[in-house]
């Protein structure tokens, strides 16, 4: 839609430039370049793919870490008397091992750090079989193997955390870019409506609702969709939204409980909860969307019921 709007502006530059001299071909080209740059930013699905791939790799590497800790435990029981097994295994990271449940990456990292430190401090004893007194217990290459497994896990863990942060900030960055692009387009459209008020054929090229219809985005005639919203539930109404696509659509709280307020907001994912930015809607109330009142533009529209009772709502135009 933004690209079409600026194409229309470029086709009518003389009328714009007569009122504001900065409306020149280079200005329109700059706006088009901003649209191109925003489109090149990875979307949420692309960022999530990297994050999820690293999560899978972490699970595999965590399993390898547990395997090597188990090897170490067997060397400990062969190298130390039974009365010392408990303090020795604890020093080697037994507590972290027991607490390292599903995806508890920090505990896995701590477990391996403790294990490697214990091996370093007790390598001579661990090499000896207590029963026979021979140096055939822990292999000489085992400490290096543990260090490699430890470092491999920590590297992947670091990459995972960076990808997790990038997925959050990337969504915000793309959303901010789209919002800036949309705001500049709206200013231009408002100029066009004024400058071409006496030329209906040209004026309609700068009316937002006309642009939305041209690109196939419903503006209010998409029918009514009804939703139920259980206590504490987040309902995703729409995704892959573009700036301007919500304006003119409607939402109505149809909950029967008089005190059941719903929270309506834009989000970076379908499961993101209310962040305090957006609006609330009471039973029986109907609101027409105005994106300028909803904070930074994001691609998902969610509705959250924070009460303990079931609510309902309907949307029009989606």
Descriptive key words:
single chain, 318 residues, alpha+beta, Jelly Rolls, 2 domains, four-stranded antiparallel sheet, 10 helices, 8 strands, elongated
Q: What is the element layout, followed by pairings?
A:
Elements: H1 2-10, H2 13-17, H3 25-40, H4 44-79, H5 85-91, H6 94-99, H7 105-126, H8 142-195, H9 200-203, H10 208-214, E1 224-229, E2 234-238, E3 250-253, E4 262-267, E5 279-281, E6 286-288, E7 300-305, E8 311-316
Antiparallel strand pairs: 1-8, 2-7, 3-6, 3-8, 4-5, 4-7
Helix pairs in contact: 1-3, 1-8, 3-8, 4-7, 4-8, 7-8
Brief digest:
By secondary structure, the chain is of the alpha+beta class. The chain has helices at 2-10, 13-17, 25-40, 44-79, 85-91, 94-99, 105-126, 142-195, 200-203, 208-214, and strands at residues 224-229, 234-238, 250-253, 262-267, 279-281, 286-288, 300-305, 311-316.
Account of the 3D structure:
The protein is of the alpha+beta class and about 325 residues long. The protein is built from 10 helices and 8 strands. It has helices at about 1-10, 15, 25-40, 45-80, 85-90, 95-100, 105-125, 140-195, 200-205, 210-215, and strands spanning about 225-230, 235-240, 250-255, 260-265, 280, 285-290, 300-305, 310-315. It has a 4-stranded antiparallel β-sheet with strand order 1-8-3-6, with no helix packed on it. It is elongated. The two termini are about 15 Å apart. The model is unreliable at about 215-220 (pLDDT under 50).
């Amino acid at each position: 839609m933004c690209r079409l709007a600026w194409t229309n502006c470029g086709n009518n530059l003389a009328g714009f430039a007569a009122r504001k001299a900065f409306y020149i071909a280079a200005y329109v080209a700059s706006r088009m370049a901003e649209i191109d740059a925003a489109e090149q930013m990875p979307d949420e699905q692309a960022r999530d793919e990297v994050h999820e791939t690293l999560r899978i790799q972490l699970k595999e590497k965590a399993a390898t870490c547990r395997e090597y800790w188990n090897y170490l435990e067997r060397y400990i029981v062969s190298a130390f008397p039974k009365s010392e097994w408990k303090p020795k295994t604890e020093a080697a990271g037994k507590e972290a091992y027991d607490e390292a449940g599903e995806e508890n990456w920090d505990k896995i990292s701590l477990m391996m750090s403790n294990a490697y430190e214990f091996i370093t401090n007790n390598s001579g004893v661990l090499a000896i079989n207590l029963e026979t007194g021979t140096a055939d217990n822990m292999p000489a290459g085992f400490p290096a193997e543990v260090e490699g497994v430890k470092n491999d896990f920590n590297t992947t863990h670091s990459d995972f955390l960076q990808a997790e942060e990038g997925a959050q900030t990337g969504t915000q960055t793309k959303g901010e870019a789209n919002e800036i692009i949309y705001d500049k387009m709206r200013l231009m459209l408002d100029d066009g409506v004024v400058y071409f008020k006496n030329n209906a054929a040209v004026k309609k090229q700068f009316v937002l609702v006309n642009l939305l219809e041209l690109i196939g985005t419903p503006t209010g005639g998409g029918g009514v969709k009804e939703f139920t919203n259980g206590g504490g539930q987040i309902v995703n109404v729409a995704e892959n939204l573009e700036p301007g696509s919500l304006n003119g659509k409607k939402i109505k709280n149809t909950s029967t409980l008089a005190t059941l307020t719903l929270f309506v907001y834009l989000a970076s994912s379908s499961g993101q909860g209310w962040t305090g930015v957006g609006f609330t809607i009471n039973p029986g109330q109907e609101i027409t969307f105005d994106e300028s009142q909803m904070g930074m533009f994001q691609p998902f529209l969610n509705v959250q019921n924070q009460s303990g009772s079931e609510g309902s709502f309907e949307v029009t135009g989606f």
